Amino acid sequence: xxxxxxxxxxxxxxxxxxxxxxxxxxxxxxxxxxxxxxxxxxxxxxxxxxxxxxxxxxxxxxxxxxxxxxxxxxxxxxx
Length: 79
Description:
Layout: H1 5-14, H2 20-25, H3 33-44, H4 48-60, H5 63-78
Helix pairs in contact: 1-5, 3-5, 4-5
């Protein structure tokens, strides 16, 4: 599902810049956060609990907040 302009702007303001080189190596542009989320879902090997937490956060908050959660998980694992 495509993100609105407002959702993308929110994500840009809270994103984890440390992942910039990883995203760039995969061709994942900043204005396509849904592609970044898909990428992180694939590489993080999330547990069912992690997935439920992300889904619940998405339903209660904004998509940008959930992507930030995924990025925080990626930072803990890969850096």
